Amino acid sequence: MSSLRALAIASEMAPLVKTGGLADVVGALPHALAAENIELRTLIPGYPEVLGVLHAGETVLEFDDLFGGPAWIHAARHNGAAIYALIAPHLYARESGLYTGPDGADYPDNAFRFAALAWAGAQIGLGALDGFTPDVVHAHDWQAALAPAYMHYAERPRPATIVSIHNIAFQGQFPKELLQPLRLPPHAFDIDGVEYYGAIGFLKAGLQLADRITTVSPSYAREIETPEFGMGLEGLLRARADRVSGILNGVDEETWNPATDAHLGTRYDHWSLPSRARNKAALQKRLRLRVDPDAFLLGVVSRLSWQKGLDLLLDVLPQLMRGRAQLALLGAGDKTLEEGFVAAEAAHVGRVGVHIGYSEELAHMIQAGVDAFLVPSRFEPCGLTQLYALRYGAVPIVSRVGGLKDTIVDANEMALQADVATGLQFSPTTADALAIALREAERLFEDAETWRKIQVNGMRTDVSWRNPARRYARLFRDVAATRVG
Ligand code: ADP
Ligand code: GLC
């Protein structure tokens, strides 16, 4: 198998910089694809947290003026991956969020911050670097999605292009007056180009002009062709349906492995499942819950946003607290939800333990300590936390949407009889359906042997990158064969 060169462009990459699952996926793909003989290098913004880590390396490309200031590309290696950091102090040297300022609002120059990323990626695609011209450019989400457009309008020989949708709710829409400042030609403002409902759509442009489109599960690939989930892009996606594929995310098996996890007091695998109880006790202590081995401990690790459906959990909490349940929740985001969970903790001392904030360590402790892990999303392109839960023997309870639907085998009667169940699914995503699923889960939990079988089935499920990497590799090779010029 001949080797192929690819450039990924993304706004996050774990472990350097992460706000969600996008970072996990971008961080894992270089290793996953190396096994398929694909050399994937990754271009990310040179945020302060990135530059703080990537000291060694060299400048490989300079721009005198990249949307208002000088910029350069710093090449370095981190965790075995080749990284290009786009250093542009006027765009990225900020101490607040990746996308938002101290007031929580989007930075007013986000159009330029991410157009710059896409522009720099497009220059690499067009051959600006000595010694590395990619066969494929892979742009992730709206922040990178102008790259195929820049290469398209350059009208020069170019690599094949792929845009991956991790979340269609974020599209990058900006006023049409920015067309020229964004270095897009007048004819780009067209329904077949970057124009989107009278404005400029970054994601729209990428979906229109890339050779191929992927998203992160087969079910989400179908869902986004409907008005309910497509968020305005369903028509375009239907028109290009033969170019769209859904490839499930995998799990980084080194980071998420209960047998070797350095964050855990007690490490275990499916042969030593009983020792998992010690992690349950440790978690209960850590989150001020009553230490009770028989409590039905539910866990959540999530961004707190409408997407994730956690308002429904608040709705059913009073009911849940009538039984033997406890809740361990780690999350941050929407202020109303944060306050709701803090209030729930105060109302149910010893039964609800909440940590508002971001903590890798606690995220691992929750996966290793809870009996069941809850993901009641209204939509979920793939979802990673239910996959981590499978690995850790925390039984996932999920809404039947997107990647949740594709990765969990519901414990219905047939699946239980065949001993293939790995979790519980519910639908529609409402408080009533969630309450029914939670009652059913608690009933199954009472039957220790059945519950253990569901845990072991989950722990034995292949959630690695092996199969997804093979599918990406096939896609990269197919599309590279059609490259222009
Ligand atoms: P999304 O990308 O939509 O947020 P995913 O399930 O794909 O959802 O990925 C979420 C990732 O972010 C997981 O790695 C999860 O463990 C992590 N995560 C979310 N919230 C927190 C938090 N408060 N602290 C630590 N990790 C978190
Ligand atoms: C997005 C989605 C999530 C997915 C992640 C990585 O953040 O919300 O479902 O797992 O991207 O692809």
TrEMBL record:
GO terms for biological process: glycogen biosynthetic process. The keyword Transferase applies. The keyword Cell inner membrane does not apply. Its EC number is 2.4.1.21. InterPro entries: Glyco_trans_1, GS/SS, Starch_synth_cat_dom. One of its GO terms (cellular component) is cytosol. Residues 291-452 form the Glycosyl transferase family domain. It holds the Pfam family Glyco_transf_5. It catalyses: [(1->4)-alpha-D-glucosyl](n) + ADP-alpha-D-glucose = [(1->4)-alpha-D-glucosyl](n+1) + ADP + H(+). ADP-alpha-D-glucose binds at K18. Residues 7-238 form the Starch synthase catalytic domain. Pathway: Glycan biosynthesis; glycogen biosynthesis. This is Glycogen synthase. The lineage of its organism: Bacteria, Pseudomonadati, Pseudomonadota, Alphaproteobacteria, Hyphomicrobiales.
